[in-house]
Task: inverse folding
């Protein structure tokens, strides 16, 4: 299992950073390799990615979500094993820290070699930097989903 942890400080309030992160369909604007994301339910999304010439489609499900604190997800079905969590911490009135932790199972020679030499670390670092630029240039979120997903109870609205 490969793992990447990356942290970036952004000059927007924690609620702005969090709200933008709930807008999965905007991820292709700052995540390399992500061609599209279609949100199919409040907690499920369909992803299309293309990395190093390999195109994959998979679904993810939010397993835990608490506004302004964290969003956790994992893949469901398919042949991609991927899980992650993003946490949000208030640094001050207009600044916050976003930490991304991803776990995945590389498959195939190219993915395993890329993970072994740290290409995945580099990609996640670049993506978090682009998220910082994206949200700071906007200055405001493009939308928000403030639902709360308890891992044992399922989603509720706050």
Result:
């Amino acid at each position: 299992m490969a793992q990447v942890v990356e942290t970036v400080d952004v000059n927007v309030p924690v609620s702005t950073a969090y709200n933008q992160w709930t807008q999965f369909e905007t991820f292709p604007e700052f995540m390399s390799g992500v061609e599209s994301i279609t949100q199919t339910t409040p907690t499920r999304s369909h992803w299309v990615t293309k990395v190093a010439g390999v195109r994959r489609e998979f679904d993810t499900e939010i397993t835990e979500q608490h506004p302004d604190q964290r969003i956790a997800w994992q893949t469901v079905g398919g042949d991609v094993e991927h899980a992650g969590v993003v946490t949000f911490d208030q640094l001050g009135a207009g600044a916050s820290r976003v930490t991304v932790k991803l776990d995945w199972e590389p498959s195939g020679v190219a993915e395993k070699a890329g993970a072994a030499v740290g290409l995945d670390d580099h990609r996640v670092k670049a993506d978090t930097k682009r998220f910082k630029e994206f949200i700071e240039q906007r200055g405001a979120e493009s939308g928000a989903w403030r639902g709360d997903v308890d891992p044992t109870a399922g989603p509720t609205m706050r």
In short: The helical segments are 14-21, 108-116, 119-138.
